[in-house]
Amino acid sequence: MKSLQELEEIRNKTRESVYLRKDRAGIRVVVGMATCGIAAGARPVLLAFLEEIKKRNIKNVTVTQTGCIGVCRLEPMVEVYLPNQEKVTYVNMTPDKVSKIVSDHIVNGQPVMKYTIGVDGR
Amino acid sequence: MELYRSHVLVCEGTGCHCSGSADVIQKLKEELEKHQLENEIKIVSTGCFGLCEIGPIVIVYPEGAFYSGVKSDDVPEIVSEHLLKGRIVKRLLYHDHVTEAGIAKSLDEVEFYKKQMRVTLRNCGVINPEKIEEYIAFDGYRALGKVLTEMTPVEVVEIMKASGLRGRGGAGFPTGRKWEFAHNAPGDKKYVCCNADEGDPGAFMDRSILEGDPHSVLEAMAIAGYAIGADQGYIYVRAEYPIAVKRLTIAVAQARNLGLLGKNIFSTGFNFDIELRLGAGAFVCGEETALMSSIEGSRGEPRPRPPFPALKGVFGKPTLLNNVETYANIPQIILKGPEWFASIGTEKSKGTKVFALGGKINNTGLVEIAMGTTLREIVYDIGGGIPGGKKFKAAQTGGPSGGCISAENLDMPIDYDSLTEIGSMMGSGGLIVMDEDNCMVDIARFFLEFTVDESCGKCPPCRIGTKRMLEILERITQGKGKEGDLENLETLAKNIKASALCGLGQTAPNPVLSTLRYFRDEYNAHVYDKKCPAGVCHALLQYTIVKDLCTGCTLCARECPVGAISGERKQPFTIDQDKCIKCGVCFEKCRFNAIEKK
Ligand SMILES: Cc1cc2nc3c(=O)[nH]c(=O)nc-3n(C[C@H](O)[C@H](O)[C@H](O)COP(=O)(O)O)c2cc1C
Ligand code: SF4
Ligand code: SF4
Ligand code: SF4
Ligand code: FES
């Protein structure tokens, strides 16, 4: 080890891959993955989120799945939680909608209203 | 960087390893591949979570779902339900982890963890101990960097003194003062050693730290090396800890690879390297002078002090020896400051202490508490109380060198000085809980038997004296105790304490003295009434048949191995006390509770 900076680099690089075991705050993306969601194509959506987040090197986002969110005909559904904000629910999700949600909502904090059924609506 | 949406942490500490965690990991790999999840979900092997009794333990993040007793057959369900569909498998959750509504609580809400304070165990069960990067991600080696680039050795010693840290290996000697002696000792070659011998029966604190967070010890040893002016360290670890040895070996290699051990660390000109020395597991080798001669390759026998190791230790050079848990505190003291550390605990005992909780307790396992926590909180809140609703009788701390804490002291804040005051000691951290079914004379006999076995035989008070004490205790438990036995025990104990060469002999009488102090009635009952009130000492028991309850079913008479029971069908039976060998078979077999054990 030559310098503190070198240590700091390793720390930063690995920190992102382990933070999900410690602080639970931050942004959460929850994909509905019950049987109906999977049938409706939720997995490609979930993978697209992972891909996009990795590509943009965004920190502090966890992507999880949940059981049935409740409205099967609107599946695949995705809920995005930003700290101190109401949850936003996206419906009829497809992988090609993901990039816009990540850039507008997750990065810039502006929900993509046209993909929702209304903020916190059900 | 790889991004996973979920981490599955599987404990690979010794406890969980024995209950099959390797199979669980293997099965997890297969199932993840089957569902094509291997690029989304990461499997992480960790060290001990502290609840070894109910292992293997699996935790799934980000939800923090805490599964216990996971078998490889349970894995498909976890993968297809939880990891694929996001439905937590409730039947596998740790029982206290489910709220009444059936929802998983967060880990800090679980009673077992709620009253704990994890300082030395903070990374255990969180990081993969075989990946140095994960230790670094949780601030690892920053303390070493800070010390080497910003502080003088004297400043480091001053921080240690200001923190109030005391040795966790048993005696509780102030760590800062020990570092100061070693720093001031003249000589250009010095050594830093780590005591990972852990010979106290039932203790596994140090093992868990080495298995779960080995780098914290390496980092602390390097800091110590800088503070006292040493460039070489030795870790003395028992060979019976294969997983700890393996993880330490990996950790040393990785640290060398990144240049965190070796030459010119952080380009400061500071050199430090560490080697392992495996011990054969003799209790006496944990004693500092015996440990040092064992490191040198000689027989592990204690030698008289002075000279103290700080002046003449390994190879006759000034040597600093600290315990594993002592070291594990140090990087955090440097990073968070001595004031932070000194704010935890009691006036004279700062920080936390790890205990291996065992015996008659619901949650056996590893717990770390702030000094000053009461025994009642440990036993009832963290430990979940005593099985079967039995009554607490005493707890033994300090293992074979310590003593017992009786029920009257349940509410005393635990620290070095309060324990010494009541005739026990902190010891290295074994904490064995006893209930009303434990006989205190038998407990004292058990610990003394251990020390007699482990005595190295070098000095007569220990070699012969402890043997004499054991003989008396054995007589007492066999119902052959006589007038004067208890007084003889006390005299012997005093003499051995005063004249034995090393700590093993000097502390060996403690369990006897402390049980005599708090449970003298029980000793008297054995010696004078020939009774064992707890019903443990076989020879003192008597089995009798209660006439009114006996239906004359003949079962006991047929089961008795020596034909001591006789009677007529449908009439009360009787036991011939001269023939009875007290095997207890009749007591267990009688379906009418007609046989009494007293
Ligand atoms: C018989 C005997 C066994 C000991 N066993 C251990 C042990 O297993 N681990 C340990 O750290 N200290 C043990 N000690 C205490 C050590 O001699 C020494 O005090 C300690 O390692 C110093 O480290 P510390 O100041 O960090 O506690 C033992 C002492 C005696 C007398
Ligand atoms: S006190 Fe016991 S263990 Fe210690 S040197 Fe004497 S005989 Fe050996
Ligand atoms: S087994 Fe019990 S009830 Fe039957 S004869 Fe023996 S003591 Fe009496
Ligand atoms: S204790 Fe054993 S030996 Fe004694 S009477 Fe009962 S069965 Fe027979
Ligand atoms: S070894 Fe797994 S919890 Fe202790």
The share of residues in extended strands of chain B comes to: 15-25%
Low-confidence stretches of chain A: none
Tell me the count of domains of chain B: 5
Give the number of DSSP strands of chain A: 4
User: Percentage of helical residues of chain A?
Assistant: 25-40%
Which CATH top level class of chain A fits? Alpha Beta
Task: Estimate the global geometry of chain A from the Cα principal axes.
Answer: elongated
Structural class estimated from helices and strands of chain B = alpha/beta
**Biggest interface, CB < 8 A:** A-B, 36 and 38 residues
CATH class of the largest domain in chain B: Alpha Beta
Give your account of this protein's structure.
The complex is a heterodimer of chains A (122) and B (598). In chain A, 39% of the residues lie in helices and 16% in strands. Chain A has helices at residues 4-18, 35-39, 42-56, 95-107; strands at residues 27-32, 61-66, 78-81, 88-90. In chain A, a hairpin with a 6-residue loop joins strand 3 and strand 4. The model of chain A has no long low-confidence stretch (mean pLDDT 79). By secondary structure, chain A is of the alpha+beta class. In chain A, helix 3 (42-56) packs across helix 4. Chain B is of the alpha/beta class. Chain B has five domains: 6-105, Glutaredoxin (3-Layer(aba) Sandwich), CATH 3.40.30; 132-342, Rossmann fold, CATH 3.40.50; 352-435, Roll (Ubiquitin-like (UB roll)), CATH 3.10.20; 440-528, NADH-ubiquinone oxidoreductase 51kDa subunit, iron-sulphur binding domain (de novo design (two linked rop proteins), Up-down Bundle), CATH 1.20.1440; 542-597, Alpha-Beta Plaits (2-Layer Sandwich), CATH 3.30.70. Chain B has 24 helices and 18 strands. In chain B, helix 6 (142-150) packs parallel to helix 10, helix 9 (205-212) packs parallel to helix 11 (242-257) and helix 17 (440-454) packs antiparallel against helix 21 (510-518). The longest helix of chain B has 18 residues, at 460-477. Chains A and B meet through helix 1, strand 1, helix 3 and strand 2 of A and strand 1, helix 5 and helix 6 of B. Bound molecules: flavin mononucleotide (FMN), iron/sulfur cluster (3 copies) and FE2/S2 (inorganic) cluster (FES).
